[in-house]
Write a structure and sequence with these properties.
Layout (H helix, E strand, L loop, with lengths): L3 H6 L1 H11 L5 H31 L7 H34 L17 E6 L11 H7 L3 E2 H7 L6 E2 L1 H20 L3 E4 L3 E2 L1 H6 L14 E2 L4 E3 L4 H6 L5 E3 L5 E10 L18 E11 L4 H19 L3 E5 L11 E9 L4 E10 L3 H6 L2 E3 L5 E3 L1 E9 H11 L24
Parallel strand pairs: 4-9, 8-14
Antiparallel strand pairs: 1-11, 2-3, 5-7, 6-7, 9-10, 10-16, 11-12, 12-13, 13-16, 14-15
Helix pairs in contact: 3-4, 5-12, 7-12
Length: 416
């Protein structure tokens, strides 16, 4: 979340940024509640101090009836003050959690259609693939949505045979690629507590837009991305300035309720309730984060260049940014089946929005302490990557040409 002091000192900027992102937050009411919060905290603290002084006065002898009565009155006043403070804090915290991060000046304004294309790589004039990925995979008995639905529901699936092996090849290649770039590879918890979920900024615009699966009766939710537990990894810690930036690569399944989202491309494996993903994550000094953001994008581009995939890079418009991101790049691959660009990866600079929530700070060489910045980016979203390979590398004889960099991870096989 944003620091309330920043909001107080930059009211119009915060209001405008929230508006551009499509978040409807009553900033004026938040500032009123902040005044009330501070006043009621002061009043409660004064009453607690008075209670402590009174308790000291009652020690060492038999207190008078007047002193006992005064003690009861103070106790009631403290209880009333604390209840009033709790009521204000409930509304205050709820409003503060709704305020999204401030967008950078170079973020395009508008909705999804206003995102700006920055570059294109590779050809987009290929002949359409003979078959889409779902038809191709089902004919070879490589994917089974029917049995996935039988055991779990719609948009769950089994991968089988060569397609399951291809997923593992992509996973191992992505991990090797990132480790060679200096990332520390990590596996992560697949469930996190509410503090970590909310602290990471996975707060919907409205109550009916939640995309996460909560575990009933537990303070746990299934993760939608490894970004969430990787953000929580350093919660309540102070990092040394000389240790930054830190780069982590996380492998995890991702669980999302949005598989049938209205208006989204949902065919086959493109948008499902569960998929695996290799995620990039970085903690940086504030002055490093914009350069590291460009670095994460460069790694994404290099990885997909090495696979031989055609794509474009876009600067995401403000209205399509989530709450935590100050800026986000997407890479969209060219689908020869659809004759259109489809989302493949993204990388976001979340500045100190997440780290403020989770109390992740850095100690500077001069001894001062401040929040670090956090960034994340998709290396490979595996289900979607399978779509890309199946539709981009079909051969005239009906086989799939294996990208050269994946051959060593598929026992030397160059075709499937």
């Amino acid at each position: 979340m944003l620091d309330i002091r920043y909001i107080t000192n930059n009211v119009e900027k915060v209001k405008q940024s929230a508006k551009e992102k499509g978040y409807h937050v009553d900033i004026d009411r938040l500032l009123e509640l902040d005044v009330q919060r501070r006043q009621k905290m002061t009043a409660a603290d004064e009453l607690r101090e008075r209670r402590n002084r009174h308790a000291s006065a009652m020690k060492g002898g038999r207190p008078s009836p007047e002193l006992i009565a005064e003690g009861r009155a103070i106790k009631e006043q403290v209880a009333t003050a604390e209840a009033e403070l709790a009521e204000v804090l409930e509304e205050y915290n709820a409003l503060l959690a709704q305020v999204p991060n401030i967008i950078f000046d170079d973020v395009p304004l508008g909705g999804e259609e206003d995102s700006v294309e920055l570059e294109r790589v590779g050809a987009t004039d290929q002949h359409p693939a003979a078959k889409d990925h779902l038809t191709y995979a089902q004919e070879r008995d490589w994917v089974d949505f029917a049995r996935g639905a039988k055991v779990a529901g719609a948009k769950f699936y089994y991968l089988k045979g060569d397609l399951a092996l291809l997923e593992q090849a992509l996973t191992q290649y992505a991990i090797t690629f990132l480790v060679q770039k200096g990332f520390q590879f990590m596996t992560v918890p697949h469930m996190v507590n509410q503090r970590t979920m909310v602290g990471t900024g996975f707060a919907p615009r409205t109550s009916d837009q939640s995309d996460e699966y909560a575990i009933e009766g537990e303070d746990l939710s299934l993760i939608a991305t490894a970004e969430i537990p990787l953000t929580g990894y350093h919660a309540d810690e102070i990092l040394d300035e000389d240790a930054l930036p830190l780069f982590y690569a996380g492998l995890s399944p991702c669980y999302r309720r949005e598989a049938g989202a209205a208006g989204k491309h949902t065919r086959g494996l493109f948008r499902v309730h569960q998929f695996n993903k290799v995620e990039m994550y970085a903690y940086t000094l504030p002055e490093q984060s914009q350069a590291v953001h460009e670095q994460l994008l460069a790694y994404e581009k290099e990885l997909w260049d090495s696979l031989g995939v055609s794509y474009r890079v876009i600067n995401i418009a403000a209205g399509d940014l989530g709450a935590p991101a100050a800026k986000k790049y997407d890479i969209e691959y060219w689908s020869p089946v659809d004759g259109a660009f489809r989302e493949l990866t993204s990388c976001s600079n979340c500045t100190d929005f997440q780290t403020q929530n989770l109390n992740i700070r850095v100690r500077r060489r001069d001894g001062s302490i401040e929040p670090v910045h956090s960034l994340n980016g998709t290396a490979v979203s595996l289900a979607r990557a399978l779509v890309v390979v199946l539709e981009s590398f079909q051969q005239p004889d009906g086989s799939i040409r294996v990208p050269e960099v994946l051959v060593p991870y598929l026992q030397g096989r160059s075709t499937l």
